[in-house]
Amino acid sequence: MNLGFILFLIGIYGFILNRKNYLLTLIALEIILLGITLLIAIFSINLDDILGQIFGLYIIAIAACEAAIALSILVSFYKLRGTINIDSINNTKLISIKTHY
Question: For residue 51, what are the domain limits?
Fold first, then answer.
């Protein structure tokens, strides 16, 4: 159980401290999900309930899909801008449609 808590705290610590790089933020988020999944699996084994382990498998599958989508967005953004810094993401201008009333 301590390993799950340590992974969760490392992920939170990495997510809070990292404000410059999108990739490290994504890795910290995955570590948070891994810690939570490990804790759910441990509690499921202790309570002798299979539903927690099934729920853990769903979390892992959704985290993998989320990581794949985020990395594809990251690759596309890098091709457009040439950097993956969060500062450059925040400074991008979205196309606004002007409406005339």
Answer: 2-90
